[in-house]
Amino acid sequence: MTASSLRLRAGLVSIVLLAAFLGIWHLATRSAAPVATMSPEYAKLMGLTATQGKSAMPGPLDVGAKLWEHLKRPFYDNGPNDKGLGIQLAYSIARVGTGYLLAVLVAIPLGFLIGMSPLLSKALDPFIQVLKPISPLAWMPLALYTIKDSSISAIFVIFICSIWPMLLNTVFGVASVRKEWINVARTLEVGTIRRAFTVILPAAAPTILTGMRISIGIAWLVIVAAEMLVGGTGIGYFVWNEWNNLSITNVIIAILLIGIVGMLLDQILARFTRMVTFPE
Amino acid sequence: MSTFDNPFDPDRNLRAGCVCGQHQSAAEHEQATAMRCAPVESEEKRYEGVVASAVMRAMFPQDVARRAFLKSVGASTALAALSQFFPIQAATEVFAQAGAPEKKDLKVGFIPITCATPIIMAAPMGFYSKHGLNVEVVKTAGWAVIRDKTINKEYDAAHMLAPMPIAISLGLGANAIPFAVPAIENINGQGIVLATKHKDKRDPKDWKGLKFAIPFDYSMHNYLLRYYLAEHGLDPDTDVQLRSVPPPEMVANLRADNIDGFLAPDNICQRAIYDGVGFMHLLSKEIWDGHPCCSFAASREFITTAPNSFAALTRAIVDATAYASKAENRKQIAEAIAPANYINAPVTVLEQVLTGTYADGLGGVKTDAKRVDFDPFPWQSFAVWMLTQMKRWGQIKGDVDYKAVAEQVYLATDTKKLMTEMGLSPPASAYKSFAVMGKTFDPAKPEDYVASFKIRKAS
């Protein structure tokens, strides 16, 4: 069995699964519920769900048509509360990028220091363990109240939520560099700084990058929640705005796009990880 | 009663002097009517009228002389003659602009509901730009967020529930920060909607154990629903569950069966009906006709640091409110505020709310032109009533200086001055008595009013 034929068959199964999913979705949302009789005057004032028994859940065809509409003009700008999907995604990615980069700048040097000192790593561990599982939504009111700026608050929340996996992985990666390698460096009388950069960093890099990959996933999860709360711009705001209008079609489109962008971000980090991985 | 009701209605005796508010006496008004007091079509005309009558009065300090002059030459000739040596046109422009705003680019937050109609429509329909402002109206996720963003100065002013500025000023549920209300947004325009499965439970006595959503703890919705339930013998704290849910999320919750009903802004009510998940049990108008709902609020700090911007903003809002109070404009407004940039709702839904011809969710079409109405005057008696309810339900503990708080937060005097300058006719007093479910409220005796309720939180 060659690898390429396996990939071919896997792709085939994926397509069949997708088709089956779309088919079931289509059938499930097509059926019309029985409708109470109403006067035409009354019917004119009512929505399709009430007058034609149309399912409140849109079918794949509705979603496809709407998606096409969005893709045709992704960058329209109808004022501060209504922008195209492309602009919304750009805002979200910019926020995630800023918060995430700040987290990288703090987590990796800090993790390095903590990892090199067994005492610090033990002493700080309880704090990190407590702070790590806190939901972004729990941070939000505190951030809004103290920072007094909603867009910085959103970035802060990304920062605070994405820092922990990176920090923990860096600490772990640095602490578990093989003793033999460090001993060899020491025997060769390599200075501390040079040792950190030429021995520890390359050895710990795969673990650090795995942490970064987990973090970007978390940052992308967090942004949607944060934007739903502070509003204004971003894909999370888009979801909230369309939910207000009970437009499930647009919510589904947003879900799809959030998934695709999340996957792309993850793939980029995965590629970096492969670049620094070494065979032992 | 609305400030924009026919100002020539003889039954409307709200102030001393003439019905249009520009003259010392009715007789003088009659005299000047020929010249300017006819219902004005446009803003400039109205300002021009105000300016012209001021000039006339300055030129003829004595009524007798003015009357004689007008009688002998006729109003139009007088106006033409006056314009010869006094640039009324230029004076009007200067007057309309008032002081130059300290800050032109302003941000105003709003919640996507029809209560915010004047705030929202003022952007697409150009009321802000007419008053020299460049305002960005920003949609916000919920009342707590709009409060925090306004306190943080991300917004210069915001759409708030009428009791919120009082609560913020008193430090209830937030740090005490002095806020002020220059204008009420809408009166009426809310409703109690129940899930369709409760269509046989029309008597509130059968509502024990139901779950209701209200927009916020410090909202007229909360106080009205509690009032309504208590009048029917239910204790809102023990017999039913009241939950704070941001208005836009209510329909989704009603559909998901998380709640049995809600008292919410009409566009939310109508949306529930439109989607066939609920029916209109009662318009809030039937609880208290003419009740305030939402307000336009700003912090004292903004008012003192940028008084001209604040005045221009208030003028734009009062202007938009005046426009919105006219039934013939409502359809056009519905179309202006429906897009995704603003309320983001089907036009049909907003039209039903604003025109008052609506589907009730039970198969009938009802008409009530006053379903929602717009009146900017911040009656201080409204504030006193809200304070009595805060006290009644235990939101305020201890003694309250009702009058002082009401006067500090509800800027009736300033708004009155502004409205007079704009040629509108504000009421003479900031207090009026009204009836809630048939029970009269006397703003002079708030303590007695609170004590008169059998169902209330023991304090």
Automatic annotation (TrEMBL), chain A:
Source species, domain of life: Bacteria
Residue ranges constituting the ABC transmembrane type-1 domain according to the UniProt record: 89-269
Membrane topology note: Multi-pass membrane protein
Question: Keywords assigned by UniProt?
Answer: Cell inner membrane, Cell membrane, Ion transport, Membrane, Transmembrane, Transmembrane helix, Transport
Q: Specify whether Cell inner membrane is a keyword of the entry.
A: yes
Pfam families linked to this entry: BPD_transp_1
GO biological-process terms attached to the record: alkanesulfonate transmembrane transport; monoatomic ion transport
Instruction: State where it is primarily located.
Output: membrane
- Where, subcellularly, is it found? Cell inner membrane; Cell membrane
GO annotations of cellular component type? plasma membrane
Please provide, alphabetically and separated by semicolons, the GO molecular function terms listed in this UniProt record: nitrate transmembrane transporter activity
By its UniProt entry, which Gene3D superfamilies does this protein fall under? MetI-like
Q: Where is the chain membrane-spanning?
A: 99-120, 153-177, 218-240, 246-265
Family named by the database record: Belongs to the binding-protein-dependent transport system permease family.
Functional note: Probably part of an ABC transporter complex. Probably responsible for the translocation of the substrate across the membrane.
Entry protein name: Nitrate ABC transporter, permease protein
Q: Which organism is it from?
A: Bradyrhizobium niftali
From TrEMBL, chain B:
Q: Which UniProt keyword terms apply here?
A: Cell inner membrane, Cell membrane, Membrane, Signal, Transport
Q: Decide whether keyword Magnesium is in the record.
A: no
Cell location? Endomembrane system
Matching entries from SUPFAM superfamilies are given as: Periplasmic binding protein-like II
Which InterPro entries does this UniProt record tie to the protein? Answer: NrtA/CpmA_ABC-bd_dom (IPR044527), TAT_signal (IPR006311)
- Supply one GO CC term from the record: endomembrane system
| Family per record | Belongs to the CmpA/NrtA family.
Q: What is this protein called?
A: Nitrate ABC transporter substrate-binding protein
| Taxonomy of the source species | Bacteria, Pseudomonadati, Pseudomonadota, Alphaproteobacteria, Hyphomicrobiales
